[in-house]
Structure prediction request, 743 residues.
Amino acid sequence: MKPVFIEGIGIIFTRGRGLNKFEQALKDGWDEPTVSADGRKAYRVPKDALIDYNILKKVRRSDRFSRLAVFAACDAIHDSDLDIADLDQSSIGIIIATAFGPHATIFKVLDDIIDYGEKKVSPTTFANSIHNAAASYVASALGCTGPVMTTTQFYFSFQQALLLASSWLNEGRLKKVLVGIVDECSPAMEYICEEKLSVAHNGKMSPLSCLKRPKFVPGEGSAFFLVSQDSRKKKYGAFTEIDITGNSHGWTDVDLSIIGTNAMGGSEEVYKDILNKGIPVAAYSSIYGGFMTGNAFECAAAALMLKNQTQYASPNVDRTELWNVADKSKERELNQIQCISHNNTQKLVFIKMTK
Amino acid sequence: MKIYVTGLGLISAAGENEKETLTSFESGKRRAGPVSLFSTQIQSPAYEAKGFSRHYFPEQLRTLNLCLAATEDALDDASLKEEIRGKRIGVAMGTTVGSVLNDINFNMEFRDKGSAPMDSVNLYLEGNLSSGIHSFLQTEGPSITVVNACVSGANAIGVAMSWLRSGLCDIAIAGGADELNKVPFCGFGALGILSDSLCSPFDLNRKGLNLGEGAGVLLLESEQSMERRKKKPRAIMRGYDFSNDAHHLTSPDPSGAGLERATTGALIDARLEPDAISFINAHGTATIDNDLVEARVLHNLFGSTIAFLSTKGYIGHTLGAAGALEAGFCILALEQGWIPGCAGFKKLDPNIPIAPVTQKTQIEGHFALSTSMGFGGCDAALVIEFPE
Prediction:
């Protein structure tokens, strides 16, 4: 794979909006999740993080799901210092990956059908409930008229989207691609997680414990990367390999492995076999919560570490005997980091990032 | 790099296979009627795949079953069924309904009681199209489900083309599927774009679309893979491009700039001039706005004599399946040397500068264009070649 250089990153998560907030969260480590009205714990994005009238005026009718995406996407462009007006607006593509789409808005459509009848569904709500509404709002907010695509794959949504972005750049179809994820945690999703997963009632996920039923706190958010094959524009290193074969055990020439212990993939025992190789290991999902597309957050963490040449401590580690845990924040030489995720069939997928 | 089509699977109201589909097209028969798959108060004919009964997954996963049935047909057609396990085969599928957790009973119970059975959630988690097919066939390669509204099927084919060109796989299973479902039925009704009678694309008196269901799957191969298997191509995917209006969530940009950009881009990708195109399978939903914008763009690019039609009058609007089914119909037309009449069209709208064909029409030449437009301002175009 030709290197895909990162020109800008935008992120919105439970501690607010902006890469600086994310970096601070990596430094600070674990914090209590938010608690909903019915007492469920989750890492939800605070309301005030979604207020920015300069952006909102461009997407007035959007729902919360779309706003999460629009804010992170706009921030990635801003972070890159790119002025889209200076470019051919059709030369930038957008790919948004999501596991569950705007399900909260879909439930509102169902509410309309139940409460008011089939003929009284709100057209605005229905329009927002379509999976690619968020991508459409991002394109409108940024004025991008290039290819815009929304994809969904549950467990490996982000990895597949990144692979597609790389293909588009390889083909010469586009100069730059804004690729990212968005997922939302609604009350229904919190309930589903509670029913299907082992919720951490103390609010602490159990990354790196390799449990059959890992402890889980749901999360949400959006993260975007502006990428290109132009090394001169590189700000955060590059995505250099993506291995989706499911046959691999990852790379041994990396300085750190970040594992996607989002708990939605079920048993995390699969990591036992591949990580006990002396390579320092970290997991950060207990900072932003578990959700299937959270792997993009792991890549954002890796990008920051490669840029800052600083390793951030892996929070909430309770079984250090299993491997070489990166349990301290410190400056260190980091040339390559791999981000690893798994799904419910214990398949592993790897992304390698290079300084 | 040339990308070849070596297999095809088509399931829609027009037929469950190519032969039935061609019979419907030739006879002009339109198999629409009242909705039978769910109860509804909305009066709008629907194009259901009435005889469809192939179940690989639970019956409730109708979209995935439609998709896998069309996939199996495409694999059979490509003589590939027995030898796919472990091969570098990508799976790109488009859908709308297949990606959505929209069980009304689950929602009602959850909001009333604060709890609900997980059955529909478990089904939903099983129902992702490309993941389902990827694991059912045990292929090794990229896998993606495109959820780009009505352009999803065309985009999925485009994704597969990108993978093959980038060397990420040797073969790709690409297309789209959607079942007729109550929630979009209500949603399209709310938007005021469902017709209460049979749809009439590009017609003066068009009143909106009819929803349909089905699946279209193309088996795409690199030249090396096809030659290794000593297989002859049915078609060549010559060009593809797509674009976004950045204009409105549900209405096309009146200027048609996005569709024009996508179509021009697909022609450039195919290294063809517009006059090389023999006919166009237009998106032609029969909504006021879509047909107006689309016909103007086609007229601007191809002039007033281009042969074109919408096949929505035979299959309805199959949403995520539409672009893939219609790419498949283009292949059938190139092979047969004719296109069917644009079912439902009678009288030209004076605001529309060109008229579709009204009856079975012989075509000459080797190149077809299929256009797709969708919510979110998406536009896509595919150029398909009939090999010498």
User: Anything to note?
Assistant: DSSP finds twelve helices and twelve strands in chain B.
